[in-house]
Protein backbone atom coordinates (compact mmCIF):
# COMPACT_ATOMS: atom_id res chain seq x y z
CA UNK A 1 0.00 0.00 0.00
CA UNK A 2 1.33 3.40 -0.98
CA UNK A 3 1.35 6.11 1.69
CA UNK A 4 0.61 9.01 -0.57
CA UNK A 5 -0.20 9.50 -4.27
CA UNK A 6 -0.79 12.86 -5.96
CA UNK A 7 -3.27 13.34 -8.79
CA UNK A 8 -2.77 16.52 -10.77
CA UNK A 9 -6.01 17.40 -12.51
CA UNK A 10 -8.61 15.21 -10.74
CA UNK A 11 -11.21 15.46 -13.56
CA UNK A 12 -13.12 12.57 -15.12
CA UNK A 13 -10.04 10.35 -15.37
CA UNK A 14 -8.11 11.72 -12.38
CA UNK A 15 -10.99 11.64 -9.91
CA UNK A 16 -12.12 8.20 -11.15
CA UNK A 17 -8.52 7.04 -10.56
CA UNK A 18 -8.64 8.49 -7.04
CA UNK A 19 -11.90 6.66 -6.30
CA UNK A 20 -10.51 3.38 -7.67
CA UNK A 21 -7.21 3.71 -5.76
CA UNK A 22 -9.12 4.10 -2.53
CA UNK A 23 -11.65 1.38 -3.21
CA UNK A 24 -8.86 -1.09 -3.95
CA UNK A 25 -6.92 0.12 -0.91
CA UNK A 26 -3.88 0.88 -3.03
CA UNK A 27 -3.16 4.15 -1.29
CA UNK A 28 -3.71 5.72 2.14
CA UNK A 29 -3.84 9.37 1.21
CA UNK A 30 -4.53 11.04 -2.10
CA UNK A 31 -3.57 14.62 -2.85
CA UNK A 32 -5.46 16.47 -5.56
CA UNK A 33 -3.91 19.47 -7.30
CA UNK A 34 -5.98 21.64 -9.64
CA UNK A 35 -6.22 25.27 -10.69
CA UNK A 36 -10.01 24.93 -10.69
CA UNK A 37 -11.27 25.36 -7.11
CA UNK A 38 -14.68 24.12 -8.12
CA UNK A 39 -13.35 20.86 -9.55
CA UNK A 40 -11.11 20.37 -6.50
CA UNK A 41 -14.07 20.86 -4.17
CA UNK A 42 -16.08 18.34 -6.14
CA UNK A 43 -13.29 15.74 -6.20
CA UNK A 44 -12.91 16.23 -2.44
CA UNK A 45 -16.64 15.98 -1.77
CA UNK A 46 -16.90 12.59 -3.49
CA UNK A 47 -13.74 11.46 -1.62
CA UNK A 48 -11.69 10.97 -4.78
CA UNK A 49 -8.99 13.02 -3.00
CA UNK A 50 -8.20 13.58 0.67
CA UNK A 51 -6.46 16.93 0.37
CA UNK A 52 -6.94 19.88 -1.97
CA UNK A 53 -4.03 21.90 -3.32
CA UNK A 54 -4.00 24.69 -5.87
CA UNK A 55 -0.33 24.59 -6.71
CA UNK A 56 2.72 22.39 -6.98
CA UNK A 57 5.28 22.92 -4.21
CA UNK A 58 7.77 21.04 -2.08
CA UNK A 59 5.01 19.11 -0.31
CA UNK A 60 5.00 16.90 -3.44
CA UNK A 61 8.11 15.19 -2.06
CA UNK A 62 5.90 13.02 0.15
CA UNK A 63 4.14 11.31 -2.80
CA UNK A 64 5.68 8.11 -4.13
CA UNK A 65 3.71 8.48 -7.38
CA UNK A 66 2.34 11.51 -9.18
CA UNK A 67 -0.33 10.99 -11.87
CA UNK A 68 -0.80 13.89 -14.28
CA UNK A 69 -4.39 13.83 -15.56
CA UNK A 70 -4.60 17.23 -17.24
CA UNK A 71 -5.17 18.02 -20.95
CA UNK A 72 -2.16 16.74 -22.92
CA UNK A 73 -0.78 20.18 -23.76
CA UNK A 74 0.04 20.81 -20.07
CA UNK A 75 1.72 17.51 -19.19
CA UNK A 76 5.30 18.24 -20.26
CA UNK A 77 5.27 21.67 -18.61
CA UNK A 78 3.96 20.21 -15.35
CA UNK A 79 6.65 17.52 -15.27
CA UNK A 80 9.29 20.21 -15.71
CA UNK A 81 7.74 22.18 -12.88
CA UNK A 82 7.57 19.07 -10.67
CA UNK A 83 11.27 18.40 -11.25
CA UNK A 84 12.11 21.38 -9.01
CA UNK A 85 10.90 19.31 -6.06
CA UNK A 86 10.93 15.64 -6.99
CA UNK A 87 13.66 13.11 -6.45
CA UNK A 88 15.00 10.26 -8.56
CA UNK A 89 12.87 7.56 -6.93
CA UNK A 90 9.55 9.39 -7.29
CA UNK A 91 7.45 8.04 -10.13
CA UNK A 92 5.67 10.41 -12.49
CA UNK A 93 3.00 8.96 -14.78
CA UNK A 94 0.28 10.49 -16.91
CA UNK A 95 -2.93 9.52 -18.71
CA UNK A 96 -2.56 11.54 -21.91
CA UNK A 97 -4.09 10.30 -25.19
CA UNK A 98 -0.95 11.28 -27.11
CA UNK A 99 2.43 9.98 -25.97
CA UNK A 100 4.95 11.83 -28.11
CA UNK A 101 4.62 14.93 -25.95
CA UNK A 102 7.84 15.18 -23.98
CA UNK A 103 10.48 17.82 -24.67
CA UNK A 104 14.13 16.79 -24.78
CA UNK A 105 14.92 18.88 -21.72
CA UNK A 106 12.26 16.98 -19.77
CA UNK A 107 13.44 13.57 -20.95
CA UNK A 108 16.98 14.44 -19.90
CA UNK A 109 15.83 14.72 -16.29
CA UNK A 110 14.34 11.22 -16.34
CA UNK A 111 16.02 8.79 -13.91
CA UNK A 112 17.79 11.79 -12.37
CA UNK A 113 15.04 14.01 -10.99
CA UNK A 114 12.13 11.55 -11.31
CA UNK A 115 11.22 8.23 -12.88
CA UNK A 116 8.82 8.80 -15.77
CA UNK A 117 6.42 6.05 -16.92
CA UNK A 118 4.03 7.52 -19.52
CA UNK A 119 0.65 5.79 -19.70
CA UNK A 120 -2.71 5.94 -21.37
CA UNK A 121 -5.69 4.24 -19.77
CA UNK A 122 -8.11 3.91 -22.70
CA UNK A 123 -11.22 4.83 -20.82
CA UNK A 124 -13.49 7.81 -20.67
CA UNK A 125 -16.88 9.12 -21.61
CA UNK A 126 -17.97 12.21 -23.49
CA UNK A 127 -18.37 13.92 -20.11
CA UNK A 128 -15.58 15.60 -18.20
CA UNK A 129 -14.75 16.85 -14.71
CA UNK A 130 -14.77 15.20 -11.26
CA UNK A 131 -18.57 15.52 -11.23
CA UNK A 132 -18.72 12.74 -13.84
CA UNK A 133 -16.16 10.45 -12.19
CA UNK A 134 -16.97 6.89 -11.14
CA UNK A 135 -14.75 4.26 -9.58
CA UNK A 136 -15.15 1.49 -12.15
CA UNK A 137 -14.47 3.61 -15.24
CA UNK A 138 -11.36 1.53 -15.90
CA UNK A 139 -12.85 -1.93 -15.40
CA UNK A 140 -11.81 -4.38 -18.16
CA UNK A 141 -10.40 -1.64 -20.36
CA UNK A 142 -6.86 -1.48 -21.72
CA UNK A 143 -4.07 0.70 -20.40
CA UNK A 144 -1.10 1.27 -22.69
CA UNK A 145 2.28 2.12 -21.21
CA UNK A 146 4.96 3.64 -23.43
CA UNK A 147 8.11 3.45 -21.25
CA UNK A 148 10.92 5.78 -22.28
CA UNK A 149 13.64 4.16 -20.21
CA UNK A 150 14.33 0.73 -18.84
CA UNK A 151 13.42 1.44 -15.23
CA UNK A 152 11.79 -1.95 -14.60
CA UNK A 153 10.80 -1.22 -11.03
CA UNK A 154 8.84 1.92 -11.90
CA UNK A 155 7.17 0.25 -14.88
CA UNK A 156 6.16 -2.67 -12.67
CA UNK A 157 4.71 -0.38 -10.00
CA UNK A 158 2.62 1.62 -12.48
CA UNK A 159 1.45 -1.55 -14.29
CA UNK A 160 0.48 -3.08 -10.99
CA UNK A 161 -1.67 -0.09 -10.05
CA UNK A 162 -3.67 -0.12 -13.29
CA UNK A 163 -4.04 -3.91 -13.09
CA UNK A 164 -5.30 -3.77 -9.55
CA UNK A 165 -7.99 -1.30 -10.52
CA UNK A 166 -9.20 -3.64 -13.24
CA UNK A 167 -7.28 -2.75 -16.42
CA UNK A 168 -5.44 -4.96 -18.88
CA UNK A 169 -1.98 -3.49 -19.43
CA UNK A 170 -0.04 -3.46 -22.72
CA UNK A 171 3.32 -1.91 -23.49
CA UNK A 172 4.23 -0.37 -26.82
CA UNK A 173 6.45 2.16 -28.52
CA UNK A 174 5.42 5.82 -28.43
CA UNK A 175 4.96 6.05 -32.20
CA UNK A 176 3.02 2.83 -32.39
CA UNK A 177 0.64 4.13 -29.73
CA UNK A 178 0.15 7.49 -31.42
CA UNK A 179 -0.45 5.89 -34.82
CA UNK A 180 -3.01 3.41 -33.46
CA UNK A 181 -4.80 6.16 -31.54
CA UNK A 182 -4.92 8.36 -34.65
CA UNK A 183 -7.22 5.84 -36.32
CA UNK A 184 -9.10 4.30 -33.39
CA UNK A 185 -9.84 7.46 -31.48
CA UNK A 186 -8.56 10.76 -32.85
CA UNK A 187 -9.89 10.50 -36.42
CA UNK A 188 -13.33 9.22 -35.28
CA UNK A 189 -13.57 12.18 -32.93
CA UNK A 190 -12.45 14.62 -35.62
CA UNK A 191 -15.09 13.21 -37.97
CA UNK A 192 -17.78 13.29 -35.31
CA UNK A 193 -17.05 16.92 -34.44
CA UNK A 194 -17.05 17.83 -38.14
CA UNK A 195 -20.23 16.05 -39.20
CA UNK A 196 -22.36 17.73 -36.54
CA UNK A 197 -21.23 21.07 -37.96
CA UNK A 198 -21.93 19.91 -41.52
CA UNK A 199 -25.44 18.81 -40.52
CA UNK A 200 -26.34 22.16 -39.04
CA UNK A 201 -25.09 24.07 -42.04
CA UNK A 202 -27.38 22.06 -44.32
CA UNK A 203 -30.40 23.80 -45.73
CA UNK A 204 -33.07 21.75 -43.96
CA UNK A 205 -36.40 23.03 -42.69
CA UNK A 206 -36.74 20.83 -39.65
CA UNK A 207 -33.15 21.30 -38.50
CA UNK A 208 -34.02 21.22 -34.81
CA UNK A 209 -35.62 17.87 -35.31
CA UNK A 210 -32.58 16.33 -36.99
CA UNK A 211 -31.69 14.44 -33.85
CA UNK A 212 -35.15 12.87 -33.66
CA UNK A 213 -34.70 11.34 -37.05
CA UNK A 214 -31.22 10.06 -36.31
CA UNK A 215 -31.23 6.35 -35.63
CA UNK A 216 -27.86 4.94 -34.75
CA UNK A 217 -25.22 6.71 -36.85
CA UNK A 218 -25.71 10.40 -36.21
CA UNK A 219 -26.77 10.00 -32.60
CA UNK A 220 -23.49 8.22 -31.83
CA UNK A 221 -21.64 10.95 -33.71
CA UNK A 222 -23.27 13.81 -31.79
CA UNK A 223 -22.52 12.07 -28.52
CA UNK A 224 -18.85 11.68 -29.44
CA UNK A 225 -18.88 15.23 -30.82
CA UNK A 226 -19.97 16.63 -27.47
CA UNK A 227 -16.66 15.73 -25.82
CA UNK A 228 -14.53 18.43 -24.20
CA UNK A 229 -13.33 20.91 -26.90
CA UNK A 230 -10.18 21.96 -25.02
CA UNK A 231 -9.06 18.39 -24.45
CA UNK A 232 -9.63 17.46 -28.08
CA UNK A 233 -8.02 20.55 -29.59
CA UNK A 234 -4.96 19.56 -27.56
CA UNK A 235 -5.06 15.96 -28.77
CA UNK A 236 -5.51 16.89 -32.44
CA UNK A 237 -2.56 19.27 -32.31
CA UNK A 238 -0.27 17.03 -30.24
CA UNK A 239 -0.87 14.07 -32.55
CA UNK A 240 -0.83 16.30 -35.63
CA UNK A 241 1.55 14.24 -37.77
CA UNK A 242 -0.10 10.82 -37.42
CA UNK A 243 -3.57 12.32 -37.50
CA UNK A 244 -2.75 14.16 -40.74
CA UNK A 245 -1.45 10.98 -42.41
CA UNK A 246 -4.37 8.86 -41.23
CA UNK A 247 -6.87 11.51 -42.28
CA UNK A 248 -5.27 11.65 -45.74
CA UNK A 249 -5.62 7.89 -46.15
CA UNK A 250 -9.23 8.05 -45.00
CA UNK A 251 -9.98 10.89 -47.44
CA UNK A 252 -8.44 8.88 -50.28
CA UNK A 253 -10.62 5.89 -49.35
CA UNK A 254 -13.78 7.94 -49.12
CA UNK A 255 -13.09 9.72 -52.44
CA UNK A 256 -12.75 6.26 -53.95
CA UNK A 257 -16.14 5.10 -52.70
CA UNK A 258 -17.67 8.47 -53.64
CA UNK A 259 -16.54 7.87 -57.23
CA UNK A 260 -17.95 4.33 -57.15
CA UNK A 261 -21.32 5.68 -55.98
CA UNK A 262 -21.32 8.38 -58.66
CA UNK A 263 -20.56 5.75 -61.30
CA UNK A 264 -23.11 3.34 -59.74
CA UNK A 265 -20.60 0.50 -59.50
CA UNK A 266 -22.93 -1.75 -57.54
CA UNK A 267 -20.79 -4.85 -57.17
CA UNK A 268 -17.61 -2.94 -56.30
CA UNK A 269 -19.40 -1.00 -53.56
CA UNK A 270 -20.97 -4.19 -52.27
CA UNK A 271 -17.57 -5.91 -52.11
CA UNK A 272 -16.05 -2.97 -50.22
CA UNK A 273 -18.83 -3.00 -47.61
CA UNK A 274 -18.74 -6.76 -47.33
CA UNK A 275 -15.00 -6.65 -46.70
CA UNK A 276 -15.57 -4.22 -43.83
CA UNK A 277 -18.08 -6.57 -42.28
CA UNK A 278 -15.66 -9.50 -42.68
CA UNK A 279 -12.79 -7.56 -41.13
CA UNK A 280 -15.02 -6.60 -38.24
CA UNK A 281 -16.25 -10.12 -37.68
CA UNK A 282 -12.73 -11.54 -37.84
CA UNK A 283 -11.54 -9.18 -35.12
CA UNK A 284 -14.50 -9.88 -32.93
CA UNK A 285 -13.91 -13.62 -33.29
CA UNK A 286 -10.23 -13.27 -32.48
CA UNK A 287 -11.11 -11.57 -29.22
CA UNK A 288 -13.19 -14.49 -28.03
CA UNK B 1 -58.56 -5.08 -36.09
CA UNK B 2 -57.37 -5.98 -39.57
CA UNK B 3 -58.20 -9.46 -40.84
CA UNK B 4 -55.02 -10.01 -42.81
CA UNK B 5 -51.80 -8.09 -43.41
CA UNK B 6 -48.95 -9.24 -45.67
CA UNK B 7 -45.32 -8.56 -44.91
CA UNK B 8 -43.01 -8.97 -47.88
CA UNK B 9 -39.47 -9.57 -46.61
CA UNK B 10 -39.97 -10.45 -42.91
CA UNK B 11 -36.36 -9.67 -41.92
CA UNK B 12 -35.23 -7.57 -38.95
CA UNK B 13 -37.81 -4.82 -39.64
CA UNK B 14 -40.52 -6.98 -41.24
CA UNK B 15 -40.51 -9.73 -38.62
CA UNK B 16 -40.32 -7.19 -35.78
CA UNK B 17 -43.33 -5.50 -37.35
CA UNK B 18 -45.14 -8.84 -37.46
CA UNK B 19 -44.40 -9.48 -33.78
CA UNK B 20 -45.57 -5.98 -32.83
CA UNK B 21 -48.78 -6.22 -34.91
CA UNK B 22 -49.72 -9.41 -33.13
CA UNK B 23 -48.76 -8.25 -29.67
CA UNK B 24 -50.88 -5.13 -30.07
CA UNK B 25 -53.71 -7.21 -31.56
CA UNK B 26 -53.77 -5.04 -34.69
CA UNK B 27 -54.15 -7.99 -37.03
CA UNK B 28 -55.58 -11.51 -36.94
CA UNK B 29 -53.46 -13.18 -39.57
CA UNK B 30 -50.08 -12.19 -40.96
CA UNK B 31 -48.76 -13.54 -44.26
CA UNK B 32 -45.00 -13.54 -44.81
CA UNK B 33 -43.56 -13.61 -48.33
CA UNK B 34 -39.86 -14.14 -48.88
CA UNK B 35 -37.57 -15.75 -51.45
CA UNK B 36 -35.40 -17.01 -48.58
CA UNK B 37 -36.95 -20.21 -47.21
CA UNK B 38 -34.67 -20.08 -44.23
CA UNK B 39 -35.75 -16.58 -43.23
CA UNK B 40 -39.41 -17.51 -43.76
CA UNK B 41 -39.03 -20.53 -41.51
CA UNK B 42 -37.44 -18.42 -38.83
CA UNK B 43 -40.11 -15.70 -39.02
CA UNK B 44 -42.76 -18.43 -38.78
CA UNK B 45 -41.06 -20.18 -35.86
CA UNK B 46 -41.03 -17.01 -33.74
CA UNK B 47 -44.67 -16.37 -34.75
CA UNK B 48 -43.91 -13.10 -36.54
CA UNK B 49 -45.97 -14.53 -39.42
CA UNK B 50 -48.80 -17.09 -39.55
CA UNK B 51 -48.33 -18.29 -43.10
CA UNK B 52 -45.27 -18.69 -45.31
CA UNK B 53 -45.31 -17.88 -49.01
CA UNK B 54 -42.49 -17.84 -51.52
CA UNK B 55 -44.17 -15.80 -54.19
CA UNK B 56 -46.66 -13.07 -54.87
CA UNK B 57 -49.94 -14.30 -56.38
CA UNK B 58 -53.66 -13.64 -56.35
CA UNK B 59 -53.96 -14.73 -52.72
CA UNK B 60 -52.64 -11.24 -51.90
CA UNK B 61 -56.16 -9.92 -52.58
CA UNK B 62 -57.18 -10.92 -49.06
CA UNK B 63 -54.74 -8.54 -47.34
CA UNK B 64 -55.99 -5.04 -46.51
CA UNK B 65 -52.41 -3.81 -46.11
CA UNK B 66 -49.13 -4.99 -47.63
CA UNK B 67 -45.86 -3.86 -46.04
CA UNK B 68 -42.79 -4.19 -48.24
CA UNK B 69 -39.75 -4.66 -45.98
CA UNK B 70 -37.11 -5.68 -48.53
CA UNK B 71 -33.89 -3.85 -49.49
CA UNK B 72 -34.85 -0.54 -51.16
CA UNK B 73 -33.74 -1.56 -54.65
CA UNK B 74 -36.56 -4.15 -54.83
CA UNK B 75 -39.48 -2.08 -53.54
CA UNK B 76 -40.62 -0.41 -56.77
CA UNK B 77 -40.41 -3.66 -58.73
CA UNK B 78 -42.43 -5.50 -56.10
CA UNK B 79 -45.18 -2.86 -56.11
CA UNK B 80 -45.42 -3.19 -59.87
CA UNK B 81 -45.68 -6.94 -59.52
CA UNK B 82 -48.34 -6.61 -56.79
CA UNK B 83 -50.43 -4.38 -59.03
CA UNK B 84 -51.35 -7.41 -61.16
CA UNK B 85 -53.46 -8.64 -58.24
CA UNK B 86 -54.27 -5.71 -55.95
CA UNK B 87 -57.29 -3.46 -56.00
CA UNK B 88 -57.74 0.26 -55.46
CA UNK B 89 -58.63 -0.02 -51.76
CA UNK B 90 -55.66 -2.18 -50.78
CA UNK B 91 -52.93 -0.22 -49.03
CA UNK B 92 -49.30 -0.76 -49.94
CA UNK B 93 -46.66 0.68 -47.60
CA UNK B 94 -42.91 0.14 -47.25
CA UNK B 95 -40.12 0.73 -44.74
CA UNK B 96 -37.33 1.83 -47.08
CA UNK B 97 -34.61 4.23 -45.90
CA UNK B 98 -34.79 6.17 -49.18
CA UNK B 99 -38.13 7.51 -50.38
CA UNK B 100 -37.45 8.80 -53.89
CA UNK B 101 -37.53 5.28 -55.30
CA UNK B 102 -40.77 5.01 -57.29
CA UNK B 103 -40.87 4.87 -61.07
CA UNK B 104 -43.41 6.99 -62.92
CA UNK B 105 -45.22 3.93 -64.21
CA UNK B 106 -45.67 2.74 -60.65
CA UNK B 107 -46.89 6.11 -59.40
CA UNK B 108 -49.43 6.22 -62.22
CA UNK B 109 -51.13 3.13 -60.80
CA UNK B 110 -51.56 4.75 -57.39
CA UNK B 111 -55.21 5.23 -56.34
CA UNK B 112 -56.17 3.00 -59.28
CA UNK B 113 -54.61 -0.39 -58.59
CA UNK B 114 -53.58 0.23 -54.95
CA UNK B 115 -53.23 3.01 -52.40
CA UNK B 116 -49.56 3.71 -51.77
CA UNK B 117 -48.35 5.27 -48.47
CA UNK B 118 -44.54 5.22 -48.39
CA UNK B 119 -43.06 5.09 -44.91
CA UNK B 120 -39.78 4.85 -43.03
CA UNK B 121 -39.76 3.64 -39.45
CA UNK B 122 -36.38 4.92 -38.20
CA UNK B 123 -35.45 1.86 -36.23
CA UNK B 124 -33.02 -0.98 -36.67
CA UNK B 125 -29.80 -2.44 -35.42
CA UNK B 126 -26.62 -3.49 -37.20
CA UNK B 127 -28.08 -7.02 -37.33
CA UNK B 128 -30.45 -8.28 -40.00
CA UNK B 129 -32.87 -11.13 -40.64
CA UNK B 130 -35.89 -12.47 -38.74
CA UNK B 131 -33.50 -14.16 -36.30
CA UNK B 132 -32.68 -10.72 -34.87
CA UNK B 133 -36.26 -9.45 -34.72
CA UNK B 134 -37.88 -8.28 -31.49
CA UNK B 135 -41.33 -6.88 -30.90
CA UNK B 136 -40.41 -3.54 -29.29
CA UNK B 137 -37.83 -2.49 -31.91
CA UNK B 138 -40.05 0.48 -32.80
CA UNK B 139 -40.86 1.68 -29.29
CA UNK B 140 -40.53 5.48 -28.95
CA UNK B 141 -38.79 5.85 -32.29
CA UNK B 142 -39.92 8.07 -35.16
CA UNK B 143 -41.66 6.89 -38.29
CA UNK B 144 -41.66 9.24 -41.26
CA UNK B 145 -44.41 9.03 -43.86
CA UNK B 146 -43.91 10.64 -47.26
CA UNK B 147 -47.39 10.49 -48.84
CA UNK B 148 -47.47 10.85 -52.61
CA UNK B 149 -51.20 11.48 -52.93
CA UNK B 150 -53.89 12.93 -50.75
CA UNK B 151 -55.59 9.67 -49.80
CA UNK B 152 -56.34 10.71 -46.22
CA UNK B 153 -57.94 7.42 -45.22
CA UNK B 154 -54.93 5.32 -46.21
CA UNK B 155 -52.50 7.74 -44.57
CA UNK B 156 -54.56 7.64 -41.38
CA UNK B 157 -54.64 3.83 -41.34
CA UNK B 158 -50.86 3.49 -41.81
CA UNK B 159 -50.14 6.24 -39.23
CA UNK B 160 -52.44 4.55 -36.78
CA UNK B 161 -50.63 1.22 -37.12
CA UNK B 162 -47.19 2.68 -36.42
CA UNK B 163 -48.58 4.75 -33.54
CA UNK B 164 -50.23 1.73 -31.96
CA UNK B 165 -46.95 -0.17 -32.01
CA UNK B 166 -45.23 2.68 -30.18
CA UNK B 167 -43.86 5.04 -32.82
CA UNK B 168 -44.12 8.81 -33.14
CA UNK B 169 -45.24 9.61 -36.67
CA UNK B 170 -44.14 12.60 -38.77
CA UNK B 171 -45.02 13.48 -42.33
CA UNK B 172 -42.66 15.17 -44.75
CA UNK B 173 -41.84 15.63 -48.40
CA UNK B 174 -39.86 12.91 -50.19
CA UNK B 175 -36.86 15.17 -50.85
CA UNK B 176 -36.82 16.54 -47.33
CA UNK B 177 -36.72 12.99 -46.00
CA UNK B 178 -33.93 11.88 -48.32
CA UNK B 179 -31.83 14.97 -47.56
CA UNK B 180 -32.19 14.56 -43.79
CA UNK B 181 -31.36 10.86 -44.00
CA UNK B 182 -28.28 11.59 -46.12
CA UNK B 183 -26.71 13.39 -43.16
CA UNK B 184 -28.19 11.60 -40.14
CA UNK B 185 -27.85 8.06 -41.37
CA UNK B 186 -26.38 7.45 -44.83
CA UNK B 187 -23.21 9.55 -44.50
CA UNK B 188 -22.41 8.23 -40.99
CA UNK B 189 -22.75 4.69 -42.34
CA UNK B 190 -20.60 5.46 -45.38
CA UNK B 191 -17.92 6.92 -43.10
CA UNK B 192 -18.12 3.99 -40.69
CA UNK B 193 -17.73 1.45 -43.49
CA UNK B 194 -14.82 3.41 -44.94
CA UNK B 195 -12.85 4.01 -41.75
CA UNK B 196 -12.76 0.33 -40.82
CA UNK B 197 -11.17 -0.33 -44.22
CA UNK B 198 -8.71 2.55 -43.73
CA UNK B 199 -7.71 1.18 -40.33
CA UNK B 200 -6.88 -2.24 -41.67
CA UNK B 201 -4.82 -0.88 -44.51
CA UNK B 202 -2.65 1.02 -42.05
CA UNK B 203 0.84 -0.25 -41.45
CA UNK B 204 0.43 -1.24 -37.81
CA UNK B 205 2.07 -4.18 -36.10
CA UNK B 206 -0.70 -5.05 -33.66
CA UNK B 207 -3.50 -4.74 -36.22
CA UNK B 208 -5.55 -7.56 -34.75
CA UNK B 209 -5.53 -5.76 -31.45
CA UNK B 210 -6.81 -2.48 -32.89
CA UNK B 211 -10.27 -3.12 -31.53
CA UNK B 212 -8.93 -3.61 -28.00
CA UNK B 213 -7.43 -0.18 -28.02
CA UNK B 214 -10.54 1.47 -29.40
CA UNK B 215 -12.42 3.33 -26.71
CA UNK B 216 -15.67 4.85 -27.88
CA UNK B 217 -15.11 6.22 -31.37
CA UNK B 218 -13.81 3.32 -33.42
CA UNK B 219 -15.83 0.70 -31.60
CA UNK B 220 -19.05 2.54 -32.50
CA UNK B 221 -17.80 2.84 -36.06
CA UNK B 222 -17.03 -0.86 -36.45
CA UNK B 223 -20.44 -1.73 -35.06
CA UNK B 224 -22.17 0.57 -37.55
CA UNK B 225 -19.80 -0.69 -40.26
CA UNK B 226 -20.93 -4.28 -39.70
CA UNK B 227 -24.43 -3.57 -41.02
CA UNK B 228 -25.79 -5.52 -43.99
CA UNK B 229 -23.67 -4.74 -47.12
CA UNK B 230 -26.49 -5.46 -49.60
CA UNK B 231 -28.95 -3.20 -47.82
CA UNK B 232 -26.43 -0.36 -47.59
CA UNK B 233 -25.16 -0.61 -51.16
CA UNK B 234 -28.80 -0.18 -52.16
CA UNK B 235 -29.32 2.81 -49.90
CA UNK B 236 -26.13 4.58 -51.04
CA UNK B 237 -27.09 4.16 -54.69
CA UNK B 238 -30.78 5.01 -54.28
CA UNK B 239 -29.97 8.19 -52.36
CA UNK B 240 -26.98 8.94 -54.58
CA UNK B 241 -27.74 12.61 -55.32
CA UNK B 242 -28.32 13.83 -51.75
CA UNK B 243 -25.57 11.62 -50.39
CA UNK B 244 -23.11 13.01 -52.94
CA UNK B 245 -23.98 16.62 -52.04
CA UNK B 246 -23.85 16.00 -48.30
CA UNK B 247 -20.57 14.12 -48.61
CA UNK B 248 -19.09 17.01 -50.60
CA UNK B 249 -20.06 19.48 -47.85
CA UNK B 250 -18.60 17.19 -45.21
CA UNK B 251 -15.36 16.82 -47.18
CA UNK B 252 -15.10 20.60 -47.50
CA UNK B 253 -15.57 20.96 -43.74
CA UNK B 254 -13.02 18.31 -42.89
CA UNK B 255 -10.45 19.75 -45.33
CA UNK B 256 -10.94 23.06 -43.53
CA UNK B 257 -10.21 21.59 -40.10
CA UNK B 258 -7.31 19.56 -41.57
CA UNK B 259 -5.75 22.82 -42.74
CA UNK B 260 -6.31 24.41 -39.31
CA UNK B 261 -4.58 21.46 -37.65
CA UNK B 262 -1.66 21.63 -40.09
CA UNK B 263 -1.32 25.35 -39.39
CA UNK B 264 -1.78 24.79 -35.64
CA UNK B 265 -4.57 27.35 -35.37
CA UNK B 266 -5.39 26.49 -31.79
CA UNK B 267 -8.17 28.98 -31.06
CA UNK B 268 -9.94 28.44 -34.39
CA UNK B 269 -10.01 24.68 -33.86
CA UNK B 270 -11.19 25.16 -30.30
CA UNK B 271 -14.02 27.43 -31.45
CA UNK B 272 -15.11 24.90 -34.09
CA UNK B 273 -15.25 22.06 -31.56
CA UNK B 274 -16.97 24.23 -28.98
CA UNK B 275 -19.62 25.19 -31.52
CA UNK B 276 -20.33 21.49 -32.15
CA UNK B 277 -20.80 20.92 -28.46
CA UNK B 278 -23.12 23.93 -28.23
CA UNK B 279 -25.19 22.79 -31.22
CA UNK B 280 -25.47 19.35 -29.69
CA UNK B 281 -26.49 20.66 -26.28
CA UNK B 282 -29.05 23.02 -27.79
CA UNK B 283 -30.74 20.14 -29.65
CA UNK B 284 -30.75 17.92 -26.61
CA UNK B 285 -32.31 20.72 -24.56
CA UNK B 286 -34.97 21.38 -27.17
CA UNK B 287 -36.02 17.75 -26.99
CA UNK B 288 -36.74 17.91 -23.27
Characterise this structure:
Two copies of one chain form a homodimer. Chain A has 288 residues and is an alpha/beta fold. The first copy, chain A, has two domains: 171 residues, NAD(P)-binding Rossmann-like Domain (Rossmann fold); 112 residues, 6-phosphogluconate dehydrogenase C-terminal fold, CATH 1.10.3660. Helices cover 49% and strands 14% of the residues of chain A. In chain A, the strands form two sheets. In chain A, strands 3-2-1-4-5-6 form a six-stranded parallel beta sheet, sandwiched between helices. A three-stranded mixed beta sheet of chain A has the order 7-8-9, with helices on one face. In chain A, α1 links the parallel β1 and β2. The two termini of chain A are 34 Å apart. The model of chain A has no long low-confidence stretch (mean pLDDT 93). Chains A and B meet through α6, α7, α8, α9 and α10 of A and α6, α7, α8, α9 and α10 of B.
Amino acid sequence: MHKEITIIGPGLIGASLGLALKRKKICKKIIGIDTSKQNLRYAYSIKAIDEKREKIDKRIKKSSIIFICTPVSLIDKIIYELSDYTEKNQIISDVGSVKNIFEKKTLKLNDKKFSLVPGHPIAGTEHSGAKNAFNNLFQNKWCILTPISDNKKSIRIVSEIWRRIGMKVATMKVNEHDKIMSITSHLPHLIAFTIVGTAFNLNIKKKNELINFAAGGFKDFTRIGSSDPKMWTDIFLKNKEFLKDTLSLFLKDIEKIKKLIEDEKYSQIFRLLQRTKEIRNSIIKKRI
